[in-house]
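Instructor's aside before we start: the two examples that follow are unrelated to each other. I chose them only because their records fit on one page, so don't look for a connection. First example below.
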Amino acid sequence: MSSQLAIGGVALVPGAPRIVAAGGEGELDALAAAEQADVVELRVDLFRDPRPESLPGVVRELRAGGRPVIATVRAAAEGGGALEDGRRLALYGAALAEADAIDVEIASTALVTALVPAARALGRTVILSAHVLDTTPPVAALLALVDRASRLGADVTKIATHAREHADLRTLLATTLAASDVVTLAMGPLGPLSRIVLPAAGSLLTYAHVGRPTAPSGQLSLSELAPLVRRLIG
């Protein structure tokens, strides 16, 4: 892994996972004050009526809290809000003016094609992600997603699946150990455990909410997750 990999001024290093506080419009104040987090994720798709013209100001206010910002406009098919791709592209474009990183789905091909060069030109970190909401595919399929993301220009690949059984968590663990520059996590019954086990194995980031959960299931609050990470992983 490149020693230069970072989100803003926060280096991303396996074995030293960074905690991401995630939230939408209703959590702006909590995100700005999320002292237990290393990074914040602004889930623009969770706004009631997100507008490109107001987004740079929102991101600036969050960055003023001292933590770099990931801007995400998640697709509905992967657990996000109901926004058409043209509007998502405009929101991402506006966020790039101020955000330190963007997170775009691998499957959103047109957006990836447009946004990766724009992010590169501004020196932003690119996270390309895949969210499998109902199952955990086999290791080979997950590693194929990591390879695809790398070819598309990802700095970091994020893989989230639904884990019902410990076998699913073992699959994610094997993927984490076999890949580099990855974030892995689970939704579902084993989601909370995944937020500790997978970062300990090398996942670069682990996510928590600061109000309303931003994942369908399996997400811990920042006040729950941060002490566990600091105590058990460091």
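Example two begins here.
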Amino acid sequence: MPRMAYPPLIPEMSVALSLTHTEAGMLMSGFWAGYLAMQFPAGFLSDKIGAKRVYTVFLVFVGFLCLLTGFAKSFADCLVYRFVNGLAAGSVYAPGSALVLRWFPPKDRGVAIGFFMTGASIGTVIALAFSAAVSSIFGSWRWSFWFFGIPALFVAMLSLFFLKEKPDPGFEYDKVGRGGGKVSYGVVFKDLRFWVLCFASLGGSAVYVGSLTWIPTYLTMSVNLTEVYAGSISSLIALTGVVATPLGGFVADRILKKRSPIIFVGTFTSGVAAILFSIVMPTSLYSSVALFAIMLFFATLWFITSSLLPEWFQLEVMGTASGFLNLMSMIGAVLGPFIFGFILDLTSSFSLGWFALGCIATFLSLPMLWVMRKELGKR
């Protein structure tokens, strides 16, 4: 919720803080830059001192720093707060995904990660739906950050008392995963499949975060909706992720019995959908919503990427592997909003923004065909 409370507020904050489109994009990219920076350190730290500890402590910082963002007085203040908030939020994904991968056997990991990632989609929906509304009710964008900082503090308390570091006694994950033996972190970065997966995630994330950042502004400027209405419509569009991610995990685990095809289709098709949108550029509400929904459905289908990692590496290095994988995804999250905002400032064209994001995702998804071929060849 703290990460996605910002996009519906872009028009209001642009006036209040005298932001250019590039600066507005930078406030989103700044958050993701901090998020990116902590992926590998948080993953490595969770492998060393415990995923639950890292997860819980940084949830507290997520809530506190979101509250602090509401006190920003200028673009520079807001950028610093967003960046540091990103540092805290970036320390949550790696330990969280590592815990999920340790709790479930191989046949269930796609579904499990799918539901885990659905939490991010639900948080996105809530933030997009209510961020502008909270601002409108209380008369200032600051209240939105104050409002959405509180849930993270509450969930940190739940984590402290109820989260389990390890599976229940008797769950022998060494026998169902690839655990056991000498732990090797270097093998993660020597595996070409891992790098292909990283770049596919980068492309998909550029479309997902770049689009979610600018959809509310597009609906305001091109479809002539109010900011509150645009935020509400954006949240409905983001609901596709609540369906797509667990659906992708279910199809991968229960039907295909393979996960790389889902990851390829999700990344490649989201890129194609972004390019299609750049060509059509609808200005009516229903056609815009339909194309955005298709784009974001496929842009969240690939979120199960980390479920491939236990098939390749030891479970003891899941924090490190999933952390670095998400780091690469966050490079896309940093670049997507910034590239879009820069193009918008330079050309005043939303079309070129989505065309650029689509090309990035489509191109970076193609090497996944090689991984998919290798995986399917094991049948």
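The two ends are 41 Å apart (CA to CA).
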